[in-house]
Write a structure and sequence with these properties.
This protein is of the alpha/beta class. It has 3 domains: about 60 residues, no CATH class; about 60 residues, Archaeosine Trna-guanine Transglycosylase, Chain: A, domain 4 (Roll); about 180 residues, Rossmann fold. It is built from 9 helices and 17 strands. The strands form 4 sheets. A 6-stranded parallel sheet has the order 14-11-15-16-10-17, sandwiched between helices. A 5-stranded mixed sheet has the order 5-7-8-9-6. It has a 4-stranded antiparallel sheet with strand order 2-1-3-4, covered by helices on one side. A hairpin with a 5-residue loop joins strand 12 and strand 13. Helix 3 packs parallel to helix 4. The protein starts with 6 loop residues before the first strand and ends with a helix.
């Protein structure tokens, strides 16, 4: 039996890397948190030459160590990312902070966990609270597991070439929660351009490839942008009626797919249209290399999904009843992710406090399997940065 202990690795396409270099160069770069069993399952995916098709790099504080193709060698228990100073952690003002003696801090970094009794005042925290641990002039990231009464170590942010690598504390927490099987529902909030959708879809691709989930289900509100005229009924089948809402999702899926191209195989399609539950035909969509459904919420009533990664994009444009409907579709071994910006609510009579996403964050806060991270830094370059900065206190 494989161990359940997870290690963090970078998988890098050999075609875009220099195997003689101690640092990754080029794309695609994919970060994975894997157990021994998941590692073995991934390595069984061979190409025609019998290779697994990627390099593996251990995540370390300053550099990544190159390993042979197809080899995922885990570090020993003590070989973990050590604490570091504030540099590179970004804005950490939103997180709960604890200061502990140097010996406790060092033990927490080395063992990857610590008893909550060593952190005074932690008993009142909600489950899966993101925390900053300070000790001896250094800081580390931790997440509070209330049921086990302990803090778990979250890998520090790191910077490598590639858009979706966690490079500040909020992104590192989000990266961890999206891959933690204990946290079954994740809410990501934050302004436009903070990487919410890209991070979620990257996590979905990784875990479907590893066999943890069987397919990806995405839904998005069909409501018009506030102040815009309703376009009315759209002719065509179910796929075409929702086509305009799929456009942005397709673009993000295509970008993320490029990072996983070396691990994906085309989905077989017999050219025949899919048959919908109620007899209406739906057109076969693009091949993203993994099973993907992009559906309006109306088509989900009555579903019981198992081994499914469910993603609600622009969740602030759902009402609380919609979020409840979406969440209750998720069955055995499924994961639910809600992402959105409470500053961009298009629903009439709703605002940043009464929309479905904000309501879910408040309602689910004390549930053991729920985690929330608020992202801050805009990752988009150009005018988008200026708009996010100028309007941050307005909505």
């Amino acid at each position: 039996m494989g161990t359940t202990k997870k290690r963090e690795l970078l998988l890098i396409d050999p075609g875009s890397s220099d195997p003689s270099s101690s640092h990754p160069v080029g794309l695609p770069i994919v970060s994975l948190m894997m157990t021994e069993r998941e590692k073995e399952r991934l390595l069984r995916k061979k190409d025609s030459n019998g290779h697994s098709g990627h390099f593996a790099y251990l995540i370390k504080p300053e550099e990544a160590e190159a390993l042979p193709i197809g080899e995922l060698v885990y570090p020993s228990t003590g070989d973990v990312i050590q604490g570091s100073n504030h540099a590179g952690f970004g804005d950490i003002s939103q997180f709960t902070e604890f200061s502990v003696p140097a010996d406790i801090f060092r033990r927490f970094c080395e063992e990857g966990h610590a008893d909550a009794a060593l952190f005074p005042g932690s008993a009142g925290l909600n489950p899966n609270t993101c925390c900053i641990i300070r000790g001896d002039g250094e800081i580390a990231l931790g997440i509070y597991r209330r049921a086990a009464s302990r803090f778990l170590r979250v890998p520090n942010p790191y910077r490598v070439q590639g858009k979706h690598t966690p490079h500040d504390a909020p992104l590192a927490f989000a990266h961890y929660m999206l891959r933690d099987p204990y946290i079954r529902t994740v809410a990501l909030s934050g302004p436009a351009g903070t990487g919410k959708s890209s991070m979620v879809l990257q996590a979905a691709f990784e875990q479907i490839i590893m066999g943890r989930f069987k397919r990806l289900l995405i839904t998005k509100s069909t409501h018009q942008a506030r102040g815009q005229i309703n376009t009315g009924a759209v002719p065509g089948d179910s796929y075409k009626k929702f086509q305009d809402k799929r456009r942005a999702v397709h673009a993000t899926l295509s970008r993320v797919r490029e990072e996983f191209a070396h691990l994906l195989r085309p989905i077989k399609n017999d050219g025949q249209p899919k048959q919908a539950k109620k007899g209406a035909q739906t057109t076969q969509g693009p091949d993203f290399g993994i099973p993907v459904d992009i559906l309006p919420l109306n088509d989900m009533r009555g579903d019981d999904n198992k081994y499914l990664f469910q993603f609600a994009e622009e969740a602030q444009n759902f009402i609380p009843e919609n979020i409840y409907l979406f969440g209750t579709r998720a069955g055995l071994n499924s994961k639910v992710v809600l992402a959105g910006d409470v500053g961009q609510v298009d629903l009439p009579n709703c605002d940043g406090k009464t929309n479905g996403l904000a309501d879910a964050i408040k309602t689910m806060a004390k549930i053991e399997g729920f985690g929330h991270v608020r992202l801050i830094e805009c990752l988009r370059k150009g005018p988008a940065e200026d708009f996010v900065k100028a309007y941050k206190d307005r909505f």
